[in-house]
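Standup notes
- DV: blocked on the single-chain target, sequence here:
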Amino acid sequence: MDLIVQFLPAFGVLALLFVLLKNIWVSKQEVGNDKMAKIAKHIADGAMSFLKAEYKILAIFVAAVAILLYFKGTSEEGSNGMVAISFIVGAICSALAGFIGMRVATKANVRTTQAARNSLGKALEVAFAGGSVMGLGVVGLGVLGLSGLFIIYQGIWPGADNLSMVLNVLSGFSLGASSIALFARVGGGIYTKAADVGADLVGKVEAGIPEDHPLNPATIADNVGDNVGDVAGMGADLFESYVGSIIGTMVLGAYIFTPDFEGLGAVYLPLVLAAVGIVMSIIGTFFVRVKDGGSPHKALNIGEFGSAFLMVVASYFIINAMIPETVEGLPFGAWGVFMATIAGLLAGLGVGKITEYYTGTGTKPVSAIVRQSETGAATNIISGLGVGMMSTAVPILLIAIAILVSHHFAGLYGIAIAAVGMLANTGIQLAVDAYGPISDNAGGIAEMAELPSEVRERTDKLDAVGNTTAAIGKGFAIASAALTALALFSAFMKVANVTSIDVSRPDIMAGLLVGGMLPFVFSALSMNAVGRAAMAMIEEVRRQFKDIPQLHAALEVMRKYDSDMSKASADDRKIFDEADGYAEYEKCVEISTKASIKEMVLPGLLALAVPVAIGFIGGAEMLGGLLAGVTTAGVLMAIFQSNAGGAWDNAKKMIEADGRKGTDAHKAAVVGDTVGDPFKDTSGPSLNILLKLMSVVALVIAPSIAMSSEDANVYAGETMKKETKKEISVQMEKGDDGTATATITTTTMEDGKENTSEKVIKGTEEEVMAEVEKLQKGAEDMAMLHEGHDAKKEVEVKMEANEDGTVTATVTTTTIKDGKKEVTDKVIEGTEEEVKKQIEEMNKAEGMDVKAKIVKKIEKVVEEKQ
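- DV (later): unblocked, structure below
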C-alpha cells in the first residue's frame, strides 16, 4: 500500500495513456462517404468554435479570480498565495477534460454511423470507445492533478503542523474545477437546448419534417449541442464531483490520526480509492461487448456493474490496510469506513435505477404521460410535472439513508468517504454516459446522409440505450452531488470552527431561506436564457425556410409526400436534391454560441458571489445556514427537473416508435419534450454544480471567516443551553455523640448564571453517607439526560484526610463520546492546600472544554472531631 501512496500520480498517467490509445484506435476507424464526412466536419467545427469562444471568456475569469485568491492567500493565516496556482491547475484540468471528450466524441460519431452500416456490435464498440476516452480522461486528470499538487505542497510545507494549510491551498484545485464546470454546464445546456427547441418546434411541429433532417438549418447546431452539453458539460460536472469528494474527505481525514502513513492514512485513503478505481474502470471497459441481435444495454451493465463489484472487493482490502481497527474519531474503525463506502455505492446505484424507472421507455410513469398526450399538450405537461415531483421521494430517502448509515459507522468522515465510494468508478460510469450523445449524433448523421433504414435502426437502438444511460447518469450525478456537497459542507464547518447550525437563530434562518431560494433563481435564469436563445433560433429557421427558394421548394415537396421521398417523382426528387447545401447551418451555430456565452455569465457569478458575500457579511454560521438551504432545495429541484424532462423525452419517443409521428398526440408530446429540454439538460444538471461550487467556495474562504475559540464557546453556549457545571461540596463532621453532620453546598452554572444552595443533613454516619450517595446518584441521572450530545465528561473528586495530616484525593473522570464510555482514575496526595490547588487547576481546564456538556465535581471532605 505504501507503494501505491508513493506513486499515486502514476495512476493518473496510466489513465491518460489509455485515453491516448483509445483515441488513436477511434481515429483509425472508417469515416464513411463524402457526405457523412462533410456533415461530421460541420459538427466538429461547430463544437470547437463554441469551446474556443467559451474558453476565451473563461481565461479572463480564471486570471481575475486567481489574482484575488493570491492576495487572499498571502494576507491570511492558515493559507498561502499558492492557492491561486491550485485554482489555475484545477481550471485547466477541467477545461482539458471537456476538450478531450469533445474532440473524440466528434470523431467517434461519424465512425459509429459507418460501423452501424456493418453491425450493431461494431457500432457499440466505436461509440463506447469514444465515451471511455471522456471517462478515463476525467479521472486521470483528477488523480494526476490532485495527487501531484499534494505531493508538491507537502514537500514545500512538510510536517503535520502544516497539513491544514496544505489542504486549504489544495482546495483551490476544486474551486477551479467547479468554476469551469459551472460555466461549461450552463453554457453547454443553453447552447444545446436553444438549438434543440428551435429544430423541434419549427422542423417537427411547423414544417413536419423528421428529426435531424438536412433541410432543417438548426440540425447541425442541435448535433453540436449534444456534444457541448452532454459530453463536455457532463464531463466537467462529474470531474468536479470527483475532485470535490476527494478533497472534502482529505480535509476531514486530517482530523483523524492513524498509526501508519505518517498519521495520514485517512487523508490518503480517498486518493488511493480513486487511483484503484481507475484500474477497475479500465478492466470494466473490456467487458462491454455485444453481438448482432444482442442487447447493448446488457453489455454496458456488465461492464459497469462488473467494475463496481471489483471495486467493492478492492476497497475492503485497501481500507483495512490504511485504517486500523480502532482509531480516535472512527467509532468502528476500518469496518465502519468500508460500510460507509458501500452505503455510498449502493445509494448511487439505487438512485440510478429509480431514475431509470421514472424516465425509461415503457415504464408506468412514462406510459401515463403517453396516454395523457392524447388529450393535448396541457395534460401532457401536467402529467410530466407530476412524474417529476413524485420521482424525488425514493432518491431522497436513499440519499438520506446513505447519510445516516455512513455517519453511524464513520462520522462525518463516513459521509465524505461514501461520496468517494459512489464516484470511485467514475471512469466507466462516465464512459457509459458519454456513449449516449455519440450514438445520438451517429443517428443524426445517418438521417442527414440518407443512409439505408437498417443503419438508422441500429443507431436508434444504441440511442435508445443511450437515453436510458444518460438518465441514469443524471441521477447518479445528482446523488453524488448531494454527498459531495455534504462532505465539503462538513469540511467547511471543521475549518471554520462551526460546531452546529441552529435554525432558531434569526441570522441562520435567514441564510437558510436565502439558500433555499437560490436554486429557483438559478433555474429561472438558465431557463429564461434558453427561452430567449430558442426564440432567436426559431426566427432564424423560419427566415431560412421562407427566404431561401431552394429550401422552400424542397419543403413543399416533402409535405406533398408526407416526408416519404421514396414515393417522389423524378422531377420532385430533383427539386429536393437541389436544396442540399443551401441550409445556412453556420448562422444557427453562431446564434447558439453567442447566446450561450452571453447568458452563462450571470448564473455563474451568482454561484460565486453569494457565498462570499454572506460569509464576510453574515459570518461563518450564516454561511452554514445558506449551504444547508441550497443543498436541500437544490437536490430536490435537480431530481425533479431532470426526471420530468427525461420522462417527457421518452414519452415522445414511445409515440414515435408506435408510428404515430405527425398525430395530435405526437405534437403534444413534442411540446412537452420541448418544455422538458431545459429541465433535463440545462437547469437540472447545472444545479448539481451550484451545490458543490458554493460549498467549495465556502471551504476556500473558511480560514478568513473562521470563528475564534471564544466565539465558538459563546455560540456553543447559546445553542446548547449549557448546563455546563454542577459542583457539589460535602463537608462532613463527626460529633462526640457518634452522630454526623453533613453540610452540602451545591453550585450550578446555567447559561452563565451561578446559583448556590446549602443543605444540612444530620444522623448517624451511615444515614448521612446514604443521603450523600443518593445526591451523587441524582447528579449522575441528570447527566444521563444529556446523552444525546456528542460528548460528555463527568469528574468526581473524593478527598479524604489521612492520619499523618496529609490528604488523598481520588479523581474519577468518566467520558462518554459517540456512545463509548471511558473511565479513568487519578490519585493526588499532599497537603490539603496542595491537593486543592491541583483540583482547582483541573476544574479550570475542564471549564474551558467546549465539548464537556456537563462537568460534575463532588468533593467529599471528612473531618473527624476528636
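- Follow-up: Strands lie at 725-734, 739-750, 753-764, 791-801, 807-817, 820-830, 855-864.
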